[in-house]
Amino acid sequence: MDRDQLIDLTRRAVKLARDNTTDLAPSQRTVTADAYTSVERHAQDSAMLMASPQLVGYVSELPRPGTFCTKTVMGRSILLTRAADGLVRAFDNVCLHRQSRITDGCGSARRLACPYHSWTYDLTGNLAGLPGAEGFPETTTGDARLSEMPAAECAGFLWISLDRDRTLDIPAFLGPLAAELDSWGIGRWSPLGEKVLDCPINWKLAIDTFAENYHFATVHKTTFATIARSNCTVFDSFGPHHRLVFPLNGILDLENTPEHEWEPLQNMVVIYALFPNIVLSCTIANGELFRVYPGDVPGRSITVHQNSTPLDVSDESMAAGAAAVFDYAHSTVRDEDYALVEALQANLASGVREHLVFGRNEPGLHHRHETWEAAVKFGAGRR
């Protein structure tokens, strides 16, 4: 994001903070409780995700040719590689023999050997060798290779399509956010691993917790609210995606500072909501990625939380500091946001009330649900 844009966002944030207000939607919005509990809607949501481009990680997880990493996406184990030609590829992480996972985690290798019977694959997906080859004449005489799916790198992130017949055009999908996200550089920072939350909450309810800061003063009284203002958000939408700016508590100090001395990134957190299931939280020192997936039933979801840092993690003290920040953010989401909405999910499932309400001061929630509902209706119309 260039400085002129950052200054403009900062001006907007300062004005909202000074006026003790926030960007507002045109009106309140009601959402039916069964959007979070219906088996039919759960199936529609899952189909929507299966049909959508999936951001699955940072490009820094495949930092050079000869590297690989694995991801779980919608219950499927995915193997991503960067072979000698430098291209990113994605495969089902499923051996051609007995369907064992071929590998786990991230690393460097010329070839990957299945841990079950040592069938070996190169990083372009070709079967490179197997013990007792005489037992598999049809396999060894054919062009055996792993099942591949579309893959791309864009804006510093790794992307796949679970639909093998789709063409990935991520710049078109992201629109103006492609260059903006790339400018942060967070996808090229050092990755700090993954933490997984398997929770009894609907996947949309999980994402809802990131779509407003109205709750900071109560839910995060001793954590995030000590850092950022509550109920004060700059909102902008970009097609099916949106951006939220959460001003930090000291932002009004800028009123006494000339604009040319402003350091915008010291005074805000920027949240990106990427359709349909991605949340990015960006600061000058952190690049958090939340990948949120429907579980096997409406009242269950899987959140994969990642973080990246611009710090030199080869320095032990810097690595420890970055890990501590990651732990703090993760525990806050787990123990405050998700723990609270577990009870909310139970209330929704009880059927006591048919609707819940989004306020004008929660435009991120409005936008998320509008885009989801439009996509679900479009998908239903195509079937």
From TrEMBL:
Residue intervals of the Rieske domain: 53-160
Cofactor: Fe cation
Stored InterPro entries: Rieske_2Fe-2S (IPR017941), Rieske_2Fe-2S_sf (IPR036922), Ring_hydroxy_dOase_asu_C_dom (IPR015879), Rng_hydr_dOase-A (IPR001663)
Domain of life: Bacteria
Gene3D superfamilies: Naphthalene 1,2-dioxygenase Alpha Subunit, Chain A, domain 1, Rieske [2Fe-2S] iron-sulphur domain
UniProt KW keywords: 2Fe-2S, Iron, Iron-sulfur, Metal-binding, Oxidoreductase
PANTHER family with a match to the protein in the record: CHOLINE MONOOXYGENASE, CHLOROPLASTIC
Record's protein name: Rieske 2Fe-2S domain-containing protein
